[in-house]
Amino acid sequence: MELPEAGRITAGDREAYLTEDILSMVSTSFVGDHWRTLPDSLIIDLGWYAPSEGDGFYRLCVLRGSWDNVVIVVENPDQYVIRDCIDYILEALSTGASLEQISPVLKTLGKQQ
């Protein structure tokens, strides 16, 4: 589902699609003969947050293992910026980049215009 810009979303679309629980992905490893989530697995979490005053924004978080270890946070109201950040994270991780290498690039990609 592609939504219009944040400022043009209808109340119905906002209620149906924009929640704190939009996406959650957890890294898994193949161990022996099955897939397993490890205690320090990476988690990519995406939600929509609408403060009581002002417009809402997407919050993209990368965690290591749990919410006690949030490594990267990007907040931006533009769905395309967030999409680009997710694409970059997945591509970088698949080529062996560390979170320390990924974080500065995401800060640049995710800056609000």
TrEMBL record:
<protein>
    <submittedName>
        <fullName>Uncharacterized protein</fullName>
    </submittedName>
</protein>
